Amino acid sequence: MSFKVPESALVVIHTPALDVLLLERASHPGFWQSVTGSRENGEPLAETALREVAEETGIVAHAADLTDWRLTNRYEIFAEWRHRYAPGVTHNTEHVFSLRVPPGTPIAVAAGEHLGYRWLPWREAAAACFSWSNRDTILMLGLAARR
């Protein structure tokens, strides 16, 4: 069995007007989040972010489109998902990125992973996230844009 690496990318996808894309988890209806996924095979984190964006939304972006926030979050992995990791692994390190896209960018969600998607103004998107790190990142995005 191959275990997941406890290192991931969080990618907040947004328009210039700060409408934020949220995806609804298939395994937890009602749980909304930005794109997130684990690093694979020692790939650079920017590649993890771009791969996850393509897999989860169908958006093909390039490294130059991605903003690396140089911010990490460390959090406890939910007990129900720990079986995906090596025995004894309890925490994940998440690396934060954002991707600005034009309004109307087509989205094709990964059917097995997500039930649907929605675009929300940044404050509403932050409030809709089940993850504290996702919520805080969206709030930082909105507050930075207001300066």
Structure in words:
By secondary structure, the protein is of the alpha+beta class. The protein has one domain: Nucleoside Triphosphate Pyrophosphohydrolase (Alpha-Beta Complex). Helices cover 24% and strands 34% of the residues. The protein has three helices and seven strands, in the order ββββαβββαα. The strands form two sheets. The chain has a four-stranded mixed sheet with strand order 4-1-6-5. It has a three-stranded antiparallel sheet with strand order 3-2-7. β2 (19-25) and β3 (32-33) form a beta hairpin. The chain is globular. The chain starts with 6 loop residues before the first strand and ends with a helix.
| Unreliable spans | none
The number of distinct β-strands equals 7
Number of helices in the DSSP assignment: 3
Tell me the structural class: alpha+beta
User: For the report, how would you describe the main beta sheet?
Assistant: 4 strands, mixed
Overall mean pLDDT stands at 95
CATH class: Alpha Beta
CATH A-level architecture: Alpha-Beta Complex
Order of helices and strands: EEEEHEEEHH
C-alpha end-to-end distance? 48 Å
* Structural domain count: 1
Going across the major beta sheet, what is the strand order? 4-1-6-5
Topology:
Blueprint: E1 7-14, E2 19-25, E3 32-33, E4 35-38, H1 45-57, E5 66-76, E6 91-100, E7 114-121, H2 122-128, H3 132-146
Parallel strand pairs: 1-6
Antiparallel strand pairs: 1-4, 2-3, 2-7, 5-6
Helix pairs in contact: 2-3
